[in-house]
Amino acid sequence: METIMIIEDDLKLSNSIGVYLEQNGYKPYVLNDFSLIENDILSVNPNLILLDINLGKHSGYEICMGIRRVSKVPILFITGRDSIEDEVKALKIGGDDYIRKPFSREVLLARIKRQLETHSKENLKLIRYKNLVLEIDKRILRNIDNTKSIELPSIEFQLLFYLFINSTQIVDRGELMDYLWENRNYVDPNALNVNLSRLRKSIESISDSEYIETIRGEGVKLV
Question: How far apart are CA 148 and CA 153, in angstroms?
Answer without folding.
Answer: 17
